[in-house]
């Protein structure tokens, strides 16, 4: 019997690899001689770097970069292993994320994505020719100006003075100079993991949708939205690319627009990118059972999350799919419409959150054993 185990991480308790190991341990109590294939998965958000380097035996690269408020922060990216050794995966939040800014200091006029550009630059210096970037969790609303500055783009105001790449700088742009944009980006395959379809501007744009959580006031929201609108006009006028209405252009404070306007990047759903990179198809073709899961399964799991992404691929091979979770939330039954055959929660009794997190591994192991025993009874 061949069992493919392909879960996401359980936030604050287990990495995706640890979830895989716990499930296999529980299953082996019932099926000690089965073949187990562990595929740690992520959906393009937090945990994607760890998932892909675990699955490919890659390498985590840690370095100091410029944080959102222009102070040094510890950041990281992953270089993949095996046949993907030429590829790197970057979570922009590692350098430019909201967690790097104290709540009382959050101000999208001041924050910059320059650190994300520094991660990309470092990866290019290591010979990377394929970049996978996750855009969630940003502290910035600079349209990617900071990132682009790190990569060689220069921005000027109406007095031909060079501008700092942050939200306030965004309001002053009159001229864009791409003559020094790192030439290596031209030959680099860039794939953006983007699970939001917000345009750059307007009521559903970057600032209106995400600005408040980054510290934007009502006045800031209007100012920055107007600035992004002007920015998009300049990109179209000076670079010949229309990004204002592009789906995903508003991701990460307009970072999506920067990639679409200045590079050859393509945007894809995060889970599709991850599963393609992990080449999950080769493991499913002769499998008998697929196990997936995430920390909490609810109605949101049906929209671009790991369990449904895995189940969609598994169903191409007619395989049964069981999802294991730390807990179940509202309307979790929606996942049944997307190929998942059964869902189980690991919490065995009423628990407070700290206890549930500390017991996650043993509870997941025990749940996996019980699922295997039920499978034996019903098959």
From TrEMBL:
Transmembrane segments: none annotated. GO terms for biological process: organic acid phosphorylation. Keywords: Kinase, Transferase. Its EC number is 2.7.1.-. InterPro entries: Glyc_kinase_flavodox-like_fold, Glycerate_kinase, Glycerate_kinase_RE-like, Glycerate_kinase_sf. GO terms for molecular function: glycerate kinase activity. SUPFAM superfamilies: Glycerate kinase I. Belongs to the glycerate kinase type-1 family. NCBIfam families: glycerate kinase (TIGR00045). This is Glycerate kinase.
């Amino acid at each position: 019997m061949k069992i493919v185990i392909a879960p996401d991480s359980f936030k604050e308790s287990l990495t995706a690899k640890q979830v895989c190991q716990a499930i296999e341990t529980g299953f082996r109590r019932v099926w000690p001689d089965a073949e187990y294939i562990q595929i740690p998965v992520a959906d393009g958000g937090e945990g994607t770097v760890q998932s892909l380097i675990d699955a490919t035996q890659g390498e985590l690269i840690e370095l100091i970069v410029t944080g959102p408020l222009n102070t040094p922060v510890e950041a990281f990216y992953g270089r993949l292993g095996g046949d993907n050794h030429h590829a790197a995966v970057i979570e922009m939040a590692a350098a430019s994320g909201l967690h790097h800014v104290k709540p009382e200091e959050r101000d999208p006029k001041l924050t910059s994505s320059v650190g994300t550009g520094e991660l990309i630059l470092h990866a290019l210096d290591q010979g990377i020719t394929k970049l996978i970037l996750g855009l969630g969790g940003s502290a910035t609303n600079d349209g990617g100006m900071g990132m682009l500055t790190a990569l060689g783009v220069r921005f000027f105001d109406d007095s031909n003075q060079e501008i700092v790449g942050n939200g306030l700088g965004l309001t002053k742009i009159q001229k864009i100079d791409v003559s020094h944009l790192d030439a290596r980006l031209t030959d680099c395959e860039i794939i953006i993991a983007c699970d939001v379809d917000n345009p750059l501007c307007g009521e559903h744009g970057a600032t209106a949708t995400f600005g408040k959580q980054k510290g934007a006031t009502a006045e800031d929201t209007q100012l920055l939205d107007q600035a992004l609108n002007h920015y998009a006009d300049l990109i179209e006028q000076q670079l010949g690319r229309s990004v204002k209405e592009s789906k995903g252009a508003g991701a990460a404070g307009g970072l999506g627009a920067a990639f679409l306007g200045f590079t050859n990047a393509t945007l894809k759903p995060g889970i599709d990118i991850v599963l393609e990179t992990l080449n999950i198809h080769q493991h499913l073709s002769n499998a008998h059972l697929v196990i997936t899961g995430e920390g909490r399964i609810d109605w949101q799991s049906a929209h671009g999350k790991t369990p449904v992404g895995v189940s969609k691929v598994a169903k191409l091979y007619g395989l049964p799919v069981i999802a294991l979770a730390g807990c179940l939330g509202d309307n979790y039954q929606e996942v049944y419409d997307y190929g998942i055959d059964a869902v189980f929660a690991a919490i065995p009794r009423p628990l407070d959150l700290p206890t549930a997190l500390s017991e996650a591994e043993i509870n997941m192991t025990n749940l996996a054993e019980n699922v295997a025993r039920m499978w034996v009874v019903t098959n």
